[in-house]
Amino acid sequence: MLLDSGAFPDTAWLQRVATEVNLSETAFAHPLPAGADADWALRWLTPAAEVNMCGHATLATAHVLHTTGTATGTVRFRTRSGVLTTTADDRGAITMDFPTAPLTPVEVPPVVADALGTEVRSAHDTGPDVGDLLVELADEESVRALAPDLKALARHGGRGVITTARADNPDGGYDFVSRCFFPGIGIDEDPVTGSAHTALAPFWSARLGRAQLVGLQGAARTGFVRTDLRGDRTLLTGSAVTVIDGELLATD
């Protein structure tokens, strides 16, 4: 949602709109004055909470700015996670420059292991910006077949749980798979999660020995994310299409 004003409305109003839209995240953006540290201010809200970082809603915002002629080239967004930039190429692909998530090995919380109901090989905390638990499973089929106890997962602290495994077929066009569950903030399963890939990129780059990888996320709905690990920054590349265009009519 592109706002005309130079400031965000009250957070409670933003939350009501996000709840009404009822998608994984609704992005709210307003332009910043010339000379500011960024071009647009950007916030992301799920149907139940505001989050510190969201990739696909940033991708969608950049897509709308470019396809409507509101912006060209590189766009800088002021966010809770600092200034994030997006750059669109002439084919419609958009590359986002995000901070790389710091990974810290942790013990698997029993509530998460029980809720997933499958072998867990390792677990990592992903730091404050992402706020998820990254869980490595045995293989691709284990990730695809997951049917977790979502009520139990909702009791786990943090934003949610990223599950991942190496791709079974190295020639299949992707290097790793993932699925992301955030029932604690109103999202049972997110179809594609850009922010999670700021953790998946360093995790799999360290194991596969390459900075540039392709991830496949999702079960019923899927999506590809190209990752390029550059130290403390991760480049995420994807594309978007406009499926609905309209105006929000609000009286307060």
UniProtKB/TrEMBL annotation:
The active site is at E25. It holds the Pfam family PhzC-PhzF. GO terms for molecular function: isomerase activity. The keyword Isomerase applies. It comes from the Bacteria. One of its GO terms (cellular component) is cytoplasm. Keywords: Isomerase. Belongs to the PhzF family. This is Oxidoreductase. It comes from Streptomyces tubercidicus.
